[in-house]
Each structure stands twice: as C-alpha cells, then as structure tokens.
C-alpha cells in the first residue's frame, strides 16, 4: 500500500499542468477517511466548516505565509474562538466561494516537488492545526501591569481600532519581501523584554550623550526589523496620533511574525507604555549564546520565567539566521584539550566549518539556525538538539539535565503541544516589567524620546 507522501506526490504530479488542487479532489483521491486518519496521526484535525483559496502565491516557499496572512485577517472578524464557520478572503478582499467544489489551492507553476511538499505542509498546518475550536477565552483575560494598571486584549479597539491590523499589514509586507525579518522581529521583542522590561527601549537610537541598547554587541549588528516598526508607527500616528505605543507595536509585530512563520495565532494583551531610558550597558541581562544551563535558568528566573518557559521560548531558534561569530568557538579552539566542542555532531560541525571558515569569520557571515526548515515555526529545532545539532552552546546545554532534556523531547515529539506552550510563553514574556498607566509615555517616533 502506498504511503501518504507517495500518494501526495503522485497526485501533485497528476495535476501539475493545471497547478490547481481542489479540496474535493483531495478527498476523492485519498479517500476522506484515509486523509482524516493521516491528519489525526500527525496532530491535525479537519473541520468541514473551513474553506479556502490561494489565488496568487508569492516567491518561493511562501505559500503558507501568504495564506496565513489572508486567514488571520478573516479570523479577526470571525471571532475564531467561538468556532463559527470561517470563509477566507481572496486577494482583493472579496469572500471566496463557499462551495467546496469551487475551492482550490493554486501554486506557482515553477515550484518543484520539494517546494510543493513544503507549501502543502504549511497549508495543512494552517487548516488543520490552527483553526480548531480552541478555547481562547483565557487569553482575553486582563493582565496586571507593574503599577496595578491592566494590560488587556483589544486595548485599542475603541481608541484606534485599526492598530493591530495596520501592524500586521506592515509585518506581512516586510516578511513577504524578506522572510528572515519574521525571526528578527521575534528576537527584537525578546531583547526588548529582557532589558528594562517590554517598554520599547530597544528601539531608541543613540545620541551624542548616550549609547543605546541597540548599539550593544548582543544587538548590533544582529538585530533587524527596525524599519518595520517605524513604518507601522508612521501609519498609526497619521491615523490616531499619540495613542499606540511602540512597545505594543513591537509585541504585535512579534505575534504576527510567529503566525506568518506557521505558528499559532494568539491575542496580545496591550496597554504598554514606552520607556524613557535605553543604555547599552544594561544588555548584560540578555542570555549570551555561550550560556550553560545554570546561567540560562538564572537569567530567565530573574525575569519571572521558569525552565519550561525558557526551553519553549528557545524554540524561536527554529527560524532565522545566526552570525558565525556567535558559535565559532565551538568549531575552533574550543578548549585546551579539544579543538572542537565534543557535544557537537561531527558531521554538522564539518558543514558549519564550510560556511564559517576559521580564516574568514566576518561580522556578516551567517548560517540558518535550523537548516532543515529555516522559515517554519516547527519542532525541528528540538529534533536538532536531540541529534546534537544545536547551533549555540545555549541550545545544546538544554540536554545537560534530565528534566530539561525531557522537555526538549516532549516538544520535539508533539508539534501541537509546543505551539500551545509557545503562545503561552510569548504572552507571559510580553508582561515582563511593563510600564502602564501614568508610567512612561507614548512616543511619537519610536527611535527617540518625546
């Protein structure tokens, strides 16, 4: 009996000339029961109430990102947590047909088999993983800020109802052009929250009298995506001046980046104010890539995050790139007794040495954090750690303790659980030492204090 991937390839090949894959044909070709069983076996659950189309696919490997963008726009109005039937908008904003006979996936003709397979996988993640009758009500509960004032989901619905949508549009525009920016924005939010709390201080430019956070070695030259925040802020200031904080824009942008990478959508409690201080020397609170388990645990605990949060948030390393200088010591002159880190898989180390030769480790040399699926928010990062292919010391050290190793194994084996935990950890991280109420300000320009 042919395997599902084999059937999938045969089916794709049979329809390659048309570049169209109707949902009805999917069910007919594979058999509804067989398809449902395969999906269930991989953690996906189908819903007959969901129909979709994908009229134009952007450049290579981005079909899942484009579909995700279309889907989230519709979900914003359909109140997905109530499990209502959802119909996805087409490119021009009109509702697609609700007749399943007319609905089809359409991919670019030039996509090869591997690209088609990844695109189809991304679609499955979206259709059968994200859009379930999940109870998101708990995410709407207010969260307490540092001075007793509350963060709240839908904070701008009355004062600037287009706020989150505008941020999402800017993130989508950026990610469709350069998918690496998704990882950049997630990382920027993390770096913001770990220094003085989630107050947008990482966005502030240096002045003649002060060196700001963004100029410190942990952030420069590796942080990117500042222009995305600038563009969103400019649009919001023209629409509702002095209302939406830069700290909230960054939190929204990180959420959208997670989703555009194939992660779960989630609601962001908002109401943060922008900080008034940004000092480069305070970035010592950021965990360096050379951290061991004890150091990581302590640095996360200092921010109110436990080991489970730490391991889950580390899963963000499944997308994006790293500079060779961040891990080169694992490849060359590791210690007095070993030239190479013995915890690193030798084959992987050889591959990294080809990309990062010792004679030419420049500030601009980079590699994928997760070479298997570098633009998908999945569990491949954890599988890599189990295979001793964690890029950083701070990645591989998660196996050095039996309890943390068990969590790595759990995340590697259960995509659904990881996605659920990642959402919760991102929301929790987004509440670190926030400024609310009369604290801080709403910057007119995210790069400078008013």
UniProtKB/TrEMBL annotation:
Xref: PANTHER family: PEROXIDASE 25-RELATED
Per UniProt, Ca(2+) 1 binds at 192, 195, 197, 199, 201, 213
Q: Which residues bind substrate?
A: 287
Q: Name the PROSITE patterns on file.
A: PEROXIDASE_1, PEROXIDASE_2, PEROXIDASE_4
**Required cofactor(s):** Ca(2+); heme b
Positions of the Plant heme peroxidase family profile domain: 150-450
**Residues the entry annotates as binding heme b:** 317
Catalysed conversion reaction = 2 a phenolic donor + H2O2 = 2 a phenolic radical donor + 2 H2O
Q: Which cysteines are joined by disulfide bonds?
A: 160-240, 193-198, 246-446, 324-356
Q: Kindly report, in one word, the top-level EC class recorded for this enzyme.
A: oxidoreductase
Endpoints of the signal sequence: none
**Gene Ontology terms describing biological process:** hydrogen peroxide catabolic process
Q: Which UniProt keywords apply?
A: Calcium, Disulfide bond, Glycoprotein, Heme, Hydrogen peroxide, Iron, Metal-binding, Oxidoreductase, Peroxidase
Where are the coiled-coil regions? none
Q: What is its EC number?
A: 1.11.1.7
Q: List the active-site residues.
A: 191 (proton acceptor)
Binding positions (Ca(2+) 2): 318, 370, 373, 378
Q: What is this protein called?
A: Peroxidase 1
Q: Which InterPro entries match?
A: Haem_peroxidase, Haem_peroxidase_sf, Peroxidase_pln, Peroxidases_AS, Peroxidases_heam-ligand_BS, Secretory_peroxidase
Q: Give GO terms: molecular function aspect only.
A: lactoperoxidase activity; metal ion binding
How many cofactor units bind, and how?
A: Binds 2 calcium ions per subunit.
Family in the record = Belongs to the peroxidase family. Ascorbate peroxidase subfamily.
Pfam families per record: peroxidase
């Amino acid at each position: 009996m042919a395997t599902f991937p084999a059937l999938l390839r045969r089916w794709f090949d049979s329809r390659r000339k048309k570049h169209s894959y109707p949902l009805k044909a999917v069910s007919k070709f594979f058999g509804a029961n067989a398809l449902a069983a395969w999906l269930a076996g991989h953690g996906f659950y189908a819903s007959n109430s969901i129909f979709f189309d994908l009229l134009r696919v952007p450049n290579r490997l981005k079909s899942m990102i484009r579909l995700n963008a279309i889907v989230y726009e519709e979900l914003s109005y359909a109140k997905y947590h109530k499990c209502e039937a959802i119909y996805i908008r087409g490119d021009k904003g009109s509702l697609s047909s609700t007749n399943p006979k007319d609905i089809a996936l359409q991919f670019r003709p030039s996509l090869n088999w591997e690209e088609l397979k990844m695109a189809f996988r991304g679609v499955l993640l979206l259709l059968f993983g994200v859009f379930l009758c999940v109870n998101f009500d708990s995410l709407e509960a207010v969260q307490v800020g540092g001075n007793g004032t509350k963060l709240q989901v839908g904070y701008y619905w009355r004062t600037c109802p287009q706020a989150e949508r505008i941020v999402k549009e800017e993130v989508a525009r950026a990610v469709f052009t350069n998918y690496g920016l998704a990882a950049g924005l997630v990382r920027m939010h993390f770096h913001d929250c770990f220094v003085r709390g989630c107050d947008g201080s990482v966005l502030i430019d240096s002045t003649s009298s002060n060196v700001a956070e963004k100029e410190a070695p942990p952030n420069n030259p590796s942080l990117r995506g500042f222009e995305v925040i600038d563009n969103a802020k400019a649009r919001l200031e023209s629409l509702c001046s002095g209302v939406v904080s830069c700290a909230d824009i960054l939190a929204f942008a990180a959420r959208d980046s997670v989703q555009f990478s194939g992660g779960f959508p989630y609601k962001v409690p908002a109401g943060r104010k922008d900080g008034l201080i940004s000092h480069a020397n305070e970035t010592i609170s950021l965990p360096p890539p050379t951290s061991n388990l004890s150091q990581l645990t302590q640095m996360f605990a200092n921010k109110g995050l436990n080991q489970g949060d730490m391991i889950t948030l580390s899963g963000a390393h499944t997308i994006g790139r790293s500079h060779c200088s961040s891990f080169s010591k694992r490849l060359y002159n590791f210690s007095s007794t070993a030239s190479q880190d013995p915890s690193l898989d030798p084959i992987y180390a050889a591959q990294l040495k080809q990309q990062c030769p010792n004679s030419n480790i420049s500030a601009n040399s980079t590699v994928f954090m997760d070479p298997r699926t570098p633009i998908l928010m999945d569990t491949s990062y954890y599988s890599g750690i189990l295979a001793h292919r964690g890029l950083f010391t701070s990645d591989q050290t998660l196996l050095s303790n039996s309890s943390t190793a068990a969590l790595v194994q759990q995340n590697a084996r259960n995509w659904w659980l990881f996605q659920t935990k990642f959402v919760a950890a991102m929301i929790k991280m987004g509440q670190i030492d926030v400024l609310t109420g009369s604290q801080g300000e709403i910057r007119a320009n995210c790069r400078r204090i008013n």
